[in-house]
Amino acid sequence: MTIGIDQLNFYIPNFYVDMAELAEARGVDPNKFLIGIGQSQMAVSPVSQDIVSMGANAAQPILSEQDKKDITMVIVATESAIDSAKASAVQIHHLLGIQPFARCFEMKEACYAATPAIQLAKDYLVPRPKEKVLVIASDTARYGLNSGGEPTQGAGAVAMVISHNPSILELHDDSVAYTEDVYDFWRPSGEIYPLVAGKLSKDAYIKSFQESWNEYAKRHHKSLSDFAALCFHVPFTKMGQKALDSILTDSASEDTQARLNEGYKSATDYNRYVGNVYTGSLYLSLISLLENHKLNGGDNIGLFSYGSGSVGEFFSATLVDNYQDHLDVKAHKAMLDNRKALSVEEYEKFFNRFDNLEFDTETELEVEPKGNFYLKEISDNIRYYDTVK
What we know:
Layout: E1 3-11, E2 15-18, H1 19-25, H2 30-36, E3 41-43, H3 51-59, H4 65-70, E4 71-77, H5 88-96, E5 103-107, H6 114-125, E6 132-141, E7 154-164, E8 169-171, E9 176-179, E10 185-186, E11 195-196, H7 198-220, E12 229-232, H8 237-245, H9 254-267, H10 269-272, H11 281-292, E13 300-307, E14 311-319, H12 329-337, E15 340-342, H13 344-356, H14 361-365, E16 373-379, E17 382-387
Helix pairs in contact: 1-2, 3-5, 7-8, 9-11
């Protein structure tokens, strides 16, 4: 019996700002953004794309009518919740037309929550061979204009169908989680933007990776040579590289080091042009790896998930034969290439309108593909969604 990811897709808003232009507007050497943190572009979310519409847009292309009948649980992982009581999973369930007898709920632990959602889905499915679970990671990362965290913003969603006999990768029962109470990044109730201790956040991330990896290797008698590639949570592309570098010691052969470094470059290609998508960052990186790197069925992939506060988890999966047939490289490349570039002034207007919930539907929908979901209006604190005509 195997359980894993059967379908996999992402959605990002159709606007972005160039990081070199943003650096110049902020009086910063562009190489600090392009090389220092490893980001070239940053997705910018319009008011009309929130975690519900982005999550539904990520899931819609991969769900067949049979999937909608077979899905009995919908989990949304997010740290950008739009309601403190009602789960966005309920709204996404409705938009997608999934059969009514399904559990729907949200999960939260900073950027980590999609990983326990997947593990929960896997355990749930063990006695249910005919059922499926839809896991969605959807977030808008926002730190404020002219803030230290501004260059590590972004937005997007990743959708995954978890099932028996998966078409893309099989999840192993080998995960190791590491928890430590640390205030590296947090957002108290009522705060619009998170609070960040920059250096502590980087140190906590690397420590969490080292602790979970070392314990994983000890428990399961594994070494870096056992993996074709590693994927990381990617708040910015240089972060995962720093973590990887911290364990690429003399104990790893030159071939292993070269293989994992090359794999990491492929695994962060999409993230470099999107930015931080919080709960979806690891899984956007996974898609980037599978679509930009030469791998084969039977290859083992290591994955490191991290959520500030903090929880980290290292686990592994094996690629299924012909997994490439279940990816949509062409559509993903087109989504990245066909976005509209915003000037820094336009980006700032988008940013402020998002905070103030000031819609400009004509502008926001001009590059949104027909059939996509969007937030149409908010009336009496109720959100109304529609599809682009």
